[in-house]
Structure formats: C-alpha cells, structure tokens
C-alpha cells in the first residue's frame, strides 16, 4: 500500500475542499489520469493520479476540507507487492490544473466545539453537555462564580443557536478571505486619509478605472514609498520600481484581488484589455494562482456599487491601498464663486509601520492632481 497526500498546490494555502472524486474504491487508475477536483481559495483544481494502481481507500467525501500534507488516496499496486516502484513514478509530485466549471452546492459539516473552548472555566460535565449540544464554549458568557460556565449558560446559548438557525461554514474564497483579513488586522497598523478630486473637466465617457490607474502611476513616480513591501520580521521595507496593481473584484463567491502587471509601462488600450481579462477569469473561476500574487499596490473602486469614503484593508506585504467612492455633484468654490462640480471621493489607507503621514498625504495629493487634469 502507498499513501498519496494532498500536495502543496502552489498557492501557500493550508487546505482545500473536495469538490468531486473521479475514482472510487477498487477502481484501477492510470498515472496522470483524473483523480479528484478540489477547491482552493481562488480556483477549482483538478489533481491527476501520481501513479498507476488500484484505489484502496479515499480519505474524505465531497464537501470535506483536507489539509495540505494529509492523506488523500491509498493505492495498492503490483509494484507495492514487489516492494518496488516503476521507473519515473513519484508519488509526491503532482501538478494541479485549473478547471473551468460551475459552482457546486455542498452540505455543511457538523458544528464542533471550537479551540476557543480550551481556555475557559467549566466542569467536565458542562464540557460534555456543550459537546452534546454542539455549543462552542469559547462563545459562552460565564454566569457562574469566578468566571465559571454553568449548565444554564450552555443551555441558554444552545437555545439561541437553535433560534438563529444553522451556521454556514465559510468555504473557498470566503474562507481564505476571512483568514487573510484576520492576519491583516492583527499585523498592520492602518491609517486612512481622505480627499476629494474635482473631476468636472472629465469627458462624459471617461473610463474611471483607467484614470485611477494613471493617477496611481503618477503618484508612485512622485512618492514611490507607497509602492513597497514591508517585512515585519526583518522590520524593513522594499521600495519597488515596477507597479503591479492588485484590483479588487467583487464576486458572489467573495473578494478576488488579481494583479494587473507593470501598469506604468502599458498603454491605455492594453490596460483596458487586461481589466476585461481579469473580470472574465473571475467569472469563470479560472484565475491562475500566479495572477493572485505579487501585487505591490491595491485599488478598490468600490464606488461602482456605492459609498463615499472607506477604510480599505491592507494585505501584507503591501503597504497601501486606494479606495474610490461613488462620484457625485457637489457645491465647490470655483474661481471665487460657488459652482456645482462632479467630485470623486478618495480614501488612502497606509501601513504606518512603513509609511509616514507626510509620504501618504503627498501621494494622495499627487493622485488628486492627476485626476483633476483634463
């Protein structure tokens, strides 16, 4: 017998969700034949069989989450019985293939007592009751003396959970998004500055996203310190010459941030085509993993949906993100008299560990200046 473990699919993610098995127990499979499809945080990936043999056991069913390095399939083969392996067979090497396909509906797993329950004060009987009622002791407010959780506390929370309905476990993109943002919240020291750009001189059919990209390029040229990566372990930053722009894209599955490469050296038509390709890949869930890594600055054009100002979240190692709200008509002073002009609200969040307030405000000033240029 030989085990095949879930490999590192190259996205730096700790787990994947089983979508569909292409084989069953007792079935003969050829090397590189279809084995299983799994959903990572960003795409559905087909994993081929690493060897020829008979499937002895499958570890997990559709909807189960498997951690990288955990057993996925147990094989039996003639080579195993002889104690040898066929030349070229390498059970530890696999290449994932991004698969185009529809999203699948899955049943959520049962709720279990969470890790947060380990540090609470409760008797063994109360812990047993919590396990039986599927209550996480980590979310129970203790009502007993000295912070002790009582039977009544567990029963109260159990009644509340029954009333609000079953928990929906986060899957795929939303699961990864929750982890990433929790890490960002714990690590980054965010500060947000806001400003308005008077864009009344724009043509009626102006491409807002392209104008924002152009303004980011201009600002990075004048104040390059915001196009950088920060290393919290080394307590240092790398200011980068090339601008690889992460574009926040909203989708039903969650938030994607694919990267538009080298925006400072591309013409407007090429950038527009790149944006269209990004949207197409997000819709089809066929984004290559490399397209989701390596951004040096981020743009969130949330005004497409609504909102004026925001506190966009910075994802390490980047140090800044620009958010653009919905443009609106506003009374502004113009040549000494009040006038109604179209205004674009901007929010720049920066990591204060790596960027000073002066650098951030100068950057935002350059963004506004470029946007206000017809």
Distinctive features:
single chain; about 375 residues; alpha+beta; seven-stranded mixed β-sheet; five-stranded antiparallel β-sheet; 7 helices; 22 strands
Describe this structure in words.
It is built from seven helices and 22 strands. The chain is of the alpha+beta class and 374 residues long. The strands form six sheets. Strands 12, 15, 18, 19, 20, 21 and 22 form a seven-stranded mixed beta sheet that branches. Strands 7-2-4-5-9 form a five-stranded antiparallel beta sheet, with no helix packed on it. Strands 1-8-6-3 form a four-stranded antiparallel beta sheet. α2 links the parallel β10 and β11. The chain starts with a strand and ends with a helix.
Task: Describe the structure concisely.
The chain has 374 residues and is an alpha+beta fold. Helix content is 25%, strand content 28%.
Query: Which term fits the overall shape?
Result: globular
Low-confidence stretches: 83-118
SSE order in H/E notation? EEEEEEEEHEEHEHHEHEEEEEEHEEEEH
With helices defined by DSSP (H or I, 4 residues minimum), what is the helix count?
7
Instruction: State the helical fraction.
Output: 10-25%
Radius of gyration: 26 Å
């Amino acid at each position: 017998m030989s085990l095949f473990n879930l490999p590192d699919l190259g996205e730096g993610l700790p787990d994947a969700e089983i979508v569909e098995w292409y084989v069953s127990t007792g079935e003969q499979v050829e090397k590189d034949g279809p084995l299983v499809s799994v959903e990572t945080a960003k795409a559905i990936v087909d994993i081929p069989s690493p060897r020829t043999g008979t499937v002895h056991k499958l570890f997990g069913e559709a909807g189960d989450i498997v951690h990288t390095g955990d057993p996925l399939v147990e094989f039996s083969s003639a080579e195993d019985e002889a104690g040898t392996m066929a030349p070229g067979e390498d059970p530890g090497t696999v290449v994932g293939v991004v698969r185009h396909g529809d999203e699948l509906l899955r049943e959520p797993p049962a709720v279990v007592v969470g890790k947060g329950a380990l540090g609470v004060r409760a008797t063994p009987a109360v812990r047993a009751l919590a396990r039986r009622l599927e209550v996480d002791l980590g979310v129970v407010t203790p009502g007993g003396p000295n912070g002790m959780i009582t039977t009544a506390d567990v029963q109260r929370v159990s009644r509340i959970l029954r009333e609000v309905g079953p928990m929906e476990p986060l899957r795929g993109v939303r699961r990864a998004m929750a982890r990433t943002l929790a890490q960002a919240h714990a690590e980054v020291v965010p500060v947000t500055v806001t400003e308005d750009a008077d864009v009344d001189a724009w043509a009626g059919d102006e491409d807002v996203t392209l104008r924002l990209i152009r303004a980011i390029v201009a600002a990075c040229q004048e104040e390059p310190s915001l196009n950088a990566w920060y290393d919290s372990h080394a307590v240092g930053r790398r200011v980068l010459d090339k601008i690889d722009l992460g574009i926040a894209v909203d989708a039903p599955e969650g938030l994607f941030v694919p990267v538009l490469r080298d925006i400072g050296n591309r013409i407007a038509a090429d950038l527009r085509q790149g944006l269209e390709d990004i949207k197409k890949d997000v819709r089809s869930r066929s984004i290559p993993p490399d397209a989701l890594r390596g951004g040096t600055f981020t743009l969130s054009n949330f005004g497409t949906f609504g909102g004026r100002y925001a506190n966009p979240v910075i994802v390490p190692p980047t140090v800044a993100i620009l958010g653009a709200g919905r443009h609106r008509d506003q009374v502004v002073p113009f040549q000494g008299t009040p006038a109604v002009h179209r205004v674009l609200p901007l929010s720049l969040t920066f990591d204060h560990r790596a960027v000073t307030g002066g650098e951030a405000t100068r950057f935002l000033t350059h963004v506004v200046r470029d946007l206000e240029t017809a």
